[in-house]
Amino acid sequence: MNKDFRNTLILFSLGILAVAIPTALIAIGVLNAYTAQIFTLAGINAIMALSVNIICGITGQLSLGQAGFMAIGGYATILLCQNAHLPLPLAIILAALITAFFGFLIGFPTLRLEGDYLAIVTLAFGEIIRVVLVNLKQWTGGPNGIQFNTIMVFNSAVAFAAITGSLVLLVALVQNFIRSSYGRAILAVREDEIAAASSGIVVFRYKMAGFVIASFVAGVGGALYVCLIGFIKPDQAGFTKSIDYLIFVVLGGMGSTTGSVLASYVLTYLQEFLRFLQNYRLLFYPVVLIVVMIFRPQGLLGTKEVSFVRAWEKAVEFVRKKKASAK
Predict the structure, then answer these.
(1) What are φ and ψ of residue 66, in 5° steps?
(2) Which residues contact 34 (CB under 8 A, 6 or more apart)?
(3) pLDDT averaged over the chain?
């Protein structure tokens, strides 16, 4: 069997199993609706962490406005479904494209900035989006938010399958993009802009590509969020939300897709597990960040990725050795 085809088949099979097995457990009642809701919400957080990781970890730019893009995707989905009466799947795709367009508009003037200046501008963008959503009461419902009245009623299993399946698909697309010539050019820009420019790489173009892709992913996250919750309000574009998503990436490892996804699931579950502490659980994030910055400043995985193909090969080799020793 061709090695590339085999690797693709392994990853495809693992992706199907990652969605199908928990979905089946939820459907037969082994995992209750509350647990299913936590893991489904963790999937949305993982999508947002993936978005932040694209711009911060892979492109190397510090953005603090990804929650604003998420809010755009959420509101656009509701308006497209309720006002334009579009089918939900089409509305999600169009909402993500609209969010990517806003990412292009914001990125075109701001990506010429660097470091703290870019962070300040994207932070301001998120706050502008929040204020605009508060004041456009006719379209957004103002500070009280807007309900997704036309949302289809999904059970826990279907919601989990849809959101986790979207996450798996996005991770696969992002990983393939990183391994492409465009992705490697973006990584070169992240490592050293001057060296990349001297090699003929148009730095601004690849920064823009990373920013637009990250905006698209955030738009998908916002669209799936309103599909799950059935409600969104301007606070979703707030500064604290952007920081939450950035924390997932910092803990998982800047530049590590699998690390960001893993940290999203772990922290989302721990936040619910520690709910008995009431507001004191909010101290958990700062404490974890301090501990990580002291003992593991590069995050859980750093810039490394979990290789499922390599893990499969080791498992197969272990089984072969066991069989050989048994003979």
Answers:
(1) -65, -30
(2) none
(3) 83
